[in-house]
Amino acid sequence: MIENLQEFAGNFPEPWQWLAVAAVSAIPVVESYFGAAIGVLLGLPLFVAILAAVTGNVISMLLFVNGAHAVRTQVRQNRPDENKKRKYEKLHNAFDKYGIAGVSLLGQTMLPSQITSAALVSFGANKQKVIVWQVISIVLWGTLFGILATLGLPLLNK
Length: 158
What we know:
By secondary structure, this protein is mainly alpha-helical. It is 77% helix and 0% strand. The protein has one domain (2-156). The protein contains 7 helices and no strands. Helix 1 packs antiparallel against helix 2. It starts with a helix and ends with a helix.
């Protein structure tokens, strides 16, 4: 899958490859970390690859958070007293234990940031705090993988 996405982004004219990296980074599972690596492997400067990947991932995450918040608000207005089963029990337990910051920073090891952020908002977490911590997490993970891809690039050329 990553190779196909890299090929997709590589088919864009060079001045527009950053836009392709942003687009593929908006896909859950690809995120900022694989997006940054794809950008580096395409030959984009590290900063541009990370910025494009983070931008695509953040835009996608914001759509999911705001959508989940709108759905939760609507459901609570229509059925405020209804008890619902925990759909994402493992994630909810992590939320109870580590809070928004912990789940945002480590949640990407379990689920895409878009799903994690939407779930946190559906659990009743403050939307603005979720957004702030998810952006921090997306930037950190994208930067880490961008740097790792940059460091690993010479190894691929041997």
